[in-house]
């Protein structure tokens, strides 16, 4: 196997063996503490532009469940969260060459190579994670060459959402045979949506219209929309100006008869906050794991959640009328907002999980009940 190096912006050089594509990659180096779920994690669009460090030492032991490129019609027969690998590169302590799982079709190594994603094993990921926790996320570069001068690409200076969002509207019909009442039509702003969000809406009898991040809502003014979901996604939320503008227009509607219930998820929480006048800021090293504890401040109940984000809402800037719904029990950051008078709510974590606990999937039920009571 050939060697590859991870070069950090503080000039640290970590060398290991390559088991992915023989190519260079640049991005923001972040870490995730999850023990399972690497296919879901790698295909999560929120990781677009990032070099991912996995703290769990052994990766690849159960292979990958498909050996071909996914097509739109196949997306709901697999656990993937998008059509392709989204991470820019991968760093692990040990790659398991012998995989075993009844549904596995290929090795992780072959999958990474087929998608053109570089990966390095043999790196002390514990030491690397400690460095990222102490100094914060850093830019990095995976390279085959011994360079004396390095160039790094900061993905947060780009509009990453525009790169991962769908280009045209896509309609998903509910797959339930029996629906007790008229199905709800949900407009989903695709800012890098995880497919499990769509799965969670569909299995609750919702018809989902997935639209690009810069979609003008007036284009659908003749269609009865029962709710709006703002999805997760990568990068700096402030770059997502077109989505913020559309949300702001909805929040400005004063006639209660035309108010549309809104649910923001992950990046959607930050975009809803920016639209209502709050501010966001970059976290030191973000929240990326399957065991982030949050507390529901309306009910005083704690949950374990899956999270993947590098920005947070500045609580001091949240305007009157909004309440903090969830709070992170590790660092006290805002994990969700709730409007006291209007049907608008958001969560910073992933209620759809995948991978991770499903403890908070009830958020979808609560929001849909809000839609039904709003009609």
TrEMBL record:
EC numbers for this chain: 6.3.5.5
Enzyme class: ligase
Active site as annotated: 266, 350, 352
All copies of domain Carbamoyl-phosphate synthase small subunit N-terminal, residue ranges: 2-143
SMART domains cross-referenced by the UniProt entry: CPSase_sm_chain
Keyword annotations: Amino-acid biosynthesis, Arginine biosynthesis, ATP-binding, Glutamine amidotransferase, Ligase, Nucleotide-binding, Pyrimidine biosynthesis
MF terms (GO), sorted A to Z: ATP binding; carbamoyl-phosphate synthase (glutamine-hydrolyzing) activity; glutaminase activity
GO terms classed as biological process: 'de novo' pyrimidine nucleobase biosynthetic process; 'de novo' UMP biosynthetic process; glutamine metabolic process; L-arginine biosynthetic process
Region (CPSase): 1-186
Protein's UniProt keywords contain Ligase: yes
Job of this protein: Small subunit of the glutamine-dependent carbamoyl phosphate synthetase (CPSase). CPSase catalyzes the formation of carbamoyl phosphate from the ammonia moiety of glutamine, carbonate, and phosphate donated by ATP, constituting the first step of 2 biosynthetic pathways, one leading to arginine and/or urea and the other to pyrimidine nucleotides. The small subunit (glutamine amidotransferase) binds and cleaves glutamine to supply the large subunit with the substrate ammonia.
Family: Belongs to the CarA family.
Subunit relationships: Composed of two chains; the small (or glutamine) chain promotes the hydrolysis of glutamine to ammonia, which is used by the large (or ammonia) chain to synthesize carbamoyl phosphate. Tetramer of heterodimers (alpha,beta)4.
Protein name as it appears in the record: Carbamoyl phosphate synthase small chain
Phylogenetic placement of the source organism: Bacteria, Candidatus Jacksoniibacteriota
Name of the coding gene: carA
